[in-house]
């Protein structure tokens, strides 16, 4: 691992923040913390802790010794000076006199001693940082260091790798006790500049930000070199197990050999199996917990090698590499065999049994440990957060795409640790009791209760014709409600622009809805990305004008191909997935007031939209039993790709109106926008007992009223 420290960048950071009255030491703390946070082999998704000790001025103008330590909710990769709230040191040191201090009292003490009481709550490891007598302290969950920390002989290995430079400390949960243990260990070894916490992580210290940071890089590099040498000296099994072997029961590590990472032509893809995974998750979800889960498949070489090899052994069931990740991984992955083409029913049955077994094992784990702590805990949902599927890879599971992605990232780091730890020794993480104590730690539970789910969290929404106009506005409206978005449009670049405006997790796909293969590939890509489809807004359309008497057949056929048959293909694909998921679903169609109130010289459009309205009613009739709600929005005169300036001029002329009167020609006298239509789609999707319904969004048009 290489140091990324730059004297020039460090000086620029100091100059930038000093202009904002930030002390130079805190500016450098910010700079080096970001260097750590930018490296996923050191820190991942809000993990790690950093601090600096300095003197700051209080409201009375007095100089006060403080500890500026990472605060709750901040990520080292993007941290600002405010992310290291200042805590008065004097009272923190007085707490060392206590024999014990509850977690809640510790947090209260930290908040009480904040220099600014509006600052974020300091890290639960703040006391540890306060008691270690060094100016700058860095704490990471470096993958190489954890691979050493998770060895049964990690103390001996620590001495072998680092000599007297790093102190080994046995596993203790974060909090007051750990702070005391580490402080005593460091005081007993005044020449040490680091601490290796068994089963947990690595600390480095220094009088300067650069010294502490570069010691961290050096310590991790030495661990990496040690692992590489150990692995090179171990005998590597030459034979490889077949994918059939990998798909059966878990084996002992001793019998494990890696399956070559090759394409397997007789294995079903994620798009085929993901809806069944979502259905099984919903079946086993306890009352009150989410029914809709998002999946994030990783099928890179590392994920495939692990899923086909060591992931199928008992090694992968030993637990998390560091207790901090227990919430993200639920302790261990659900392990599944390879889904075979032509044998999917059998795979689904087996998957359901394995998932039920995972839940039962988690419940038993909870009962054992809850009894141990006096029966005071309330069980979290027992569903897996990570999965391994032979020949497909690994899957992160979350209530949102962001959560599923983070869980998958954590699992990727875990796989690297397990692989290295097992290859150079024996992977031995924290025991079950420690795992439970961290998972059900009151301070960890407090983090879970902070966020409130948005109304459509966990819903995957697919919108066609979403590159502009009504489709784009609809996609953004659903995203604002917490949904995950798939943006489909004939213009792939336009789709990407809309997806980028929503967020990096939105999926943009070029798709010709009149092409069956294009549409099939698009739906497969959406399921591959998110795990399924919950709401489909079939919006793509074309507005072709002309009187019926002289209307060419090809124009009429083109109108029906886009405005009717394409919607039929979209609906067929969506309903097939929804039925596999068994979560119900919503089909929404952009019909048009033309279906009810046709206009002159617009027959190709009006007749095809009338057929679409009938299609909507037919799907509502046939799939209400599946819990699938099917509704439509009838809009009128919306500026979009269909109703552009040229079309507006033609329609206004056909009705003998000015363009302004045409666009505002409704009972309210107001022009209706794409955003208005988008809100109607969102509302329609949120009506749990409404199907076969049409919402008109036209400002009021008596001739287009349904009743």
Please tell me about this protein's structure.
This protein is 45% helix and 13% strand. Strands 3-2-1-4-7-6-5 form a 7-stranded mixed beta sheet, with helices on both faces. A 7-stranded parallel beta sheet has the order 14-13-12-15-16-17-18, sandwiched between helices. The N and C termini lie far apart (71 Å). 49% of the residues are buried.
How many individual helices? 25
Q: Total strand count, please?
A: 18
Which of globular, elongated, flat, extended, rod-shaped describes the shape? elongated
Tell me the structural class.
alpha/beta
* Mean pLDDT rating: 92
Distance between the termini: 71 Å
> Numbering strands along the chain, what is their spatial order in the largest sheet?
3-2-1-4-7-6-5
Content of β-strand: 5-15%
Low-confidence spans: 237-263
Largest sheet: 7 strands, mixed
Proportion in helices: 40-55%
Draw up the topology in text.
Blueprint: H1 7-18, H2 24-37, E1 49-57, E2 63-69, E3 86-88, H3 89-94, H4 103-112, H5 126-131, E4 136-140, H6 143-149, H7 154-162, E5 166-169, H8 176-188, E6 194-197, E7 201-206, H9 209-233, H10 243-246, H11 270-284, E8 294-298, H12 301-308, H13 326-329, E9 334-336, H14 344-372, E10 386-389, E11 393-398, H15 401-424, H16 432-439, H17 442-448, E12 460-463, H18 469-480, E13 484-489, H19 492-502, E14 507-510, H20 516-530, E15 535-538, H21 553-581, E16 585-590, H22 603-623, E17 628-635, H23 645-654, H24 659-663, H25 674-685, E18 694-697
Parallel strand pairs: 5-6, 9-10, 12-13, 12-15, 13-14, 15-16, 16-17, 17-18
Antiparallel strand pairs: 1-2, 1-4, 2-3, 4-7, 6-7, 8-11, 10-11
